[in-house]
Amino acid sequence: MAHYPTRLKTRKTYSWVGRPLWDRKLHYQTYREMCVKTEGCSTEIHIQIGQFVLIEGDDDENPYVAKLLELFEDDSDPPHKKRARVQWFVRFCEVPACKRHLLGRKPGAQEIFWYDYPACDNNINAETIIGLVRVIPLAPKDVVPTNLKNEKTLFVKLSWNEKKFRPLSSELFAELNKPQESAAKCQKPVGAKSESAESPSWTPAEHVAKRIESRHSTSKSRQTPTRPLTPRARKRLELGSLGNPQMSQQTSRASLDSPGRMKRKVAFSEITSPSKRSQPDKLQTLSPALKAPEKTRETGLCYTEDDEASPKRCIILRTRIPASKTIDIKEERILTPIRGGQKSSVMPSVILKPENIKKRDAKETEAQNEATSTPRHIRRKSSVLSMNRIRQQLRFLGHSKSDQEEKGILPAAEISESSSDEEEAFTPPVPKRTPRTVSRNLRSSLKSSLHTPTKMPKKSLKPKTPRCATPQIRSRSLAAQEPASVLEEARLRLHVSAVPESLPCREQEFQDIYNFVESKLLDRTGGCMYISGVPGTGKTATVHEVMRCLQQAAQANDVPPFQYIEVNGMKLTEPHQVYVQILQKLTGQKATANHAAELLAKRFCTRGSPQETTVLLVDELDLLWTHKQDIMYNLFDWPTHKEARLVVLTIANTMDLPERIMLNRVSSRLGLTRMSFQPYTYSQLQQILRSRLKQLKAFEDDAIQLVARKVAALSGDARRCLDICRRATEICEFSQQKPDSPGLVTIAHSMEAVDEMFSSSYITAIKNSSVLEQSFLRAILAEFRRSGLEEATFQQIYSQHVALCRMEGLSYPTVSETMAVCSHLGSCRLLLVEPSRNDLLLRVRLNVSQDDVLYALKEE
Amino acid sequence: MSSRKSKSNSLIHAECLSQVQRILRERFCHQSPHSNLFGVQVQYKHLSELLKRTALHGESNSVLIIGPRGSGKTMLINHALKELMEIEEVSENVLQVHLNGLLQINDKIALKEITRQLNLENVVGDKVFGSFAENLSFLLEALKKGDRTSSCPVIFILDEFDLFAHHKNQTLLYNLFDISQSAQTPIAVIGLTCRLDILELLEKRVKSRFSHRQIHLMNSFGFPQYVKIFKEQLSLPAEFPDKLFAEKWNENVQYLSEDRSVQEVLQKHFSISKNLRSLHMLLMLTLNRVTASHPFMTAIDLMEASQLCSMDSKANIVHGLSVLEICLIIAMKHLNDIYEEEPFNFQMVYNEFQKFVQRKAHSVYNFEKPVVMKAFEHLQQLELIKPMERTSGNSQREYQLMKLLLDNTQIMNALQKYPNCPTDVRQWATSSLSWL
């Protein structure tokens, strides 16, 4: 068995690499990379998110294995600041002995299992990480290699959920296969910004690169599973583990080649006239001389460690894939520097980047200090705790040193980041985002990992029984097409569902709501807020945004942690169901409405165990109205209890809802914290459209303005505005003669879209109706004029109708025919008619103004 | 010899004709997606592009198809769906949910139906039989799970869309439109309705979430096109087995469409309604007159069918009445004239009738009052007269107020065709003073 060094032999210092991801308002600190420095040797290991790590446990021989999901900082727990979130793997020896027979075969020596047990705590102290390990997922049909010499390579084939072994699901498999890809993805936003700025200049190059990229990933995923079995790959593995597997040496090797790597990268990005300079470079890498063992060893390592440097990856690929592909790679290698060069010369964002990274670094160090945690079992936990105590004492020694080193790394980090940005920027489906959204991206991944029972009980109770498995629409076998043209891209961004990275024109409201909730959280009290506004003014979106920010703040420990619950009156079948929903989201319990109300009252109104604050969003409040108003009363009464620590945000459309429909005792409890969202003005709508489209040149300025003005004049509904613009792009596309060169959306197009959506169809309907229908309408007008009333019986109109037909030389209409005509017009709602069993006596009214009818009839 | 020949001819004809009738009746009765679309190319393109975008790009959409009854809304969507499903990569990637406002009369039933059609119950066994609230949260959960790129797009087709708008709180519509406007499972909501005021039915929040795309089908074709449709609908397809017969038949149809009297019939029909279903009705009646001995349609067939179509139904009922009942109707007509459409009761009618009988005793037998009452009740059963308010058991039937549901012109026209009508009665009808 391999022998892994732990704290007893070496001391290690941990520090963040790169800047923390930084939000617009909040201090949310997550990190991309961590640097582990082993005392005694001048080397360091860089650990990145998505990589597989060894984590120290009570057994030095077999440290725990996990995949790093996230690095972050936790302030709430002062002694330990650096924390990490991981996905555990278990070794066969960690499986309880009584269940080992379930595997049904002899486990491979280096076989590990994906630990699919949500109850296990995945939040650990980042300083318990020992180092990197290589984990290779195997397809179900593959055989676990047993007699490998390299002990630092582990194989995962099955997952273990404390009950049985299961093959890895295909998504999981794919995810494991390319851990670095996911890590790289998180970084894209920085680059995305720069890409959109200069997009026109290098579109052709981009296409090529994109193609290569996709080929890259496919070839990689195709090859990886079989790699351990191919002789060549095995050879490389052996090469990779040449010498002894001791950790210290591995780290030294890693650090030895890492400076070299950086240097090369630096050189790369410095090339500004790439066609000349990069050519020799490429040739050099292509030459067989470089396939020397040393090189391959490095690539082997590199694969697990750092795939972000695109040139690097090319090299790896080249050694792995058949010769036919090399040409493509060559192309990319030429292209990459071009982009890099342009970027650094053109874009100010690149200049900003180092600072960015550094900031994150600093944060990360703090955060990681904080992180102590309870890995999965109690035995683990205890061992980790004791270890931490020791490390605490040792830490101050290496701290200052690591800081210095971080600075040294910075340029390299910057470059690797920017290069990965370039790669990622080519995937158009992902909306371009500014740095702020990075945190959102991360947050989502974080959220998924957060769903452990300890943190969020409401989620944890879900998989209680198999019957409660979350339902899902089956996924498509063929991936959705990505937008191919500018107009399609614009359409995607203009869709209401596209989550904007910020909500323009709602800054004040955002701030107000944010401050309100934050102050309640900080004061550890409760309160109510009423938000009103006509549909489509961004009420719910703003509140969601606030909650997102607050949740990030809570992660960063700027505000106390809280629980966020959302109910929507429209998504309930009956007002009292709101109790059921709240209870279920709060605790995961299921109960009848009455029982749920009791439980909630007990929870909120009795002084008891200290609990975290609950933020409750009640959307469409007016639908919770009941005759006794007990629901509203309860909702607003709970926050007034001191122990409840409940913040209720309510949303409805009418400004005076509390006064109009609520009893005094209810509206009194709601309080006077009101906020009203005004309909968007035309300039605001314009700004919203512009911010969505950003640099994308799909609309003429006037076209946007026209839509904004039209909508602002009618309703100020942002949804309408977006829908019209979307329709306008379609009209533009239809009217285009050549599909490959879509032009801009002009005023004419948006005018047509506006007309289509707002114009009433009554007049066209009348114009297109049959002769008899038209003369029936005339008869109605004549009868109205005769009687001076706006209503007539069918019999009266019929006599008029007969007279009219006689005048116009139409054939005599029978009562049946006329009745058919009448009911036909009635079904279109051009007329309002009584049910036809009244026959001759049914009363008829016009649903259109008489002038409109006259106008429509006169036209011909 | 010749007779045998004609016999075999007619045999062949009989065989062909039964096939002709099968083909054409199928065409008239079923809205097969194979038939051609008339004059809705623009709308069709709009709809099919929209569906394609949902299927291929995972873009959520909502659209309403609005048009009067019989304007081809269902045909349009069926056509578009058929074309969509013919695309290979789409057919197994798209789920369809068909709902009808006349069948799913409330949200509870609609939710169960959606769950059933999405085959979601397979996922969690008995879930579809849960309570309404559970169903809703279950379905919302399911739809929320997906995202644009990975989930199967779902196409919701809501027939009789206006009826869904009458459901309580419009919960279903709100949720469907909400999903279509948020980053969840991509769905396309397609509503079919004949109401032009549909948007006014939607609650403001629902309305805001609806994308306001409307496709209008207006029957905007003119008469020449109508004749063309007539021709196309009657023509036999090229793959008809007996080519010779098909040729002859189509020639005949061509000849018919140029015939003046036929054009007149069609013009009349066209001026009443542009609805293609009414044309189908006319053609169906014409087709039924085709027999082995009369293998080709003639203008006369068409005219007779047209007469059948435009027959006044109430006049037909009046033709079948007894003389006594006719007399009562005439009495009611006079009462209407005298009292200006005020309601009447049996006693008044009976008195009026008595006056007439006393004057012209020889022409109509003087029936006893109960007999007249019986006749009066028969008229009420035929709904030629209608009580003003609901009949309550205790009120005296003689004095219940009634209204006549026949127009004067209807009565006069019916009398003219009434067989064996006594002259006195006819005279009495034309003038209320004739008995003097």
Automatic annotation (TrEMBL), chain A:
SUPFAM superfamilies xref list: P-loop containing nucleoside triphosphate hydrolases
The biased composition feature labelled Low complexity covers: 436-450
Biological process according to GO:
DNA replication initiation; mitotic DNA replication checkpoint signaling
Q: Where is this region: Disordered?
A: 183-298, 358-385, 412-470
Q: Which GO terms describe its molecular function?
A: ATP binding; ATP hydrolysis activity; chromatin binding; DNA replication origin binding; metal ion binding
Taxonomic superkingdom: Eukaryota
Does the entry feature the keyword Protein transport, yes or no? no
The record places domain BAH at: 45-171
- Signal sequence span is none
Annotated Basic residues bias: 456-465
What name does UniProt use for this protein?
Origin recognition complex subunit 1
Give the organism's phylogenetic lineage. Answer: Eukaryota, Metazoa, Chordata, Craniata, Vertebrata
- Gene expressing this chain: ORC1
TrEMBL record, chain B:
Q: What Gene Ontology biological process does one annotation of this record name? A: DNA replication initiation
Where would I find the AAA+ ATPase domain in this sequence? 59-202
UniProtKB keywords: ATP-binding, DNA replication, DNA-binding, Nucleotide-binding, Nucleus
What GO molecular function annotations does the UniProt record carry, in alphabetical order?
A: ATP binding; DNA replication origin binding
What Pfam family is a match, any one? AAA_16
CC annotations in GO: chromosome, telomeric region; cytosol; nuclear origin of replication recognition complex; nucleolus; nucleoplasm
The record's subcellular locations are: Nucleus
Gene3D superfamilies per the UniProt record, alphabetical = P-loop containing nucleotide triphosphate hydrolases
Q: Which InterPro entries match?
A: AAA+_ATPase (IPR003593), AAA_16 (IPR041664), ORC4 (IPR016527), ORC4_C (IPR032705), P-loop_NTPase (IPR027417)
- Is the keyword Nucleotide-binding assigned to this protein? yes
Q: What is its main location?
A: nucleus
The family line of this record is: Belongs to the ORC4 family.
Please give the function described in this protein's UniProt entry.
Component of the origin recognition complex (ORC) that binds origins of replication. DNA-binding is ATP-dependent. The specific DNA sequences that define origins of replication have not been identified yet. ORC is required to assemble the pre-replication complex necessary to initiate DNA replication. Binds histone H3 and H4 trimethylation marks H3K9me3, H3K27me3 and H4K20me3.
Quaternary data: Component of ORC, a complex composed of at least 6 subunits: ORC1, ORC2, ORC3, ORC4, ORC5 and ORC6. ORC is regulated in a cell-cycle dependent manner. It is sequentially assembled at the exit from anaphase of mitosis and disassembled as cells enter S phase. Interacts with DBF4. Interacts with POLQ.
Write the protein's name. Origin recognition complex subunit 4
The gene it comes from is: ORC4
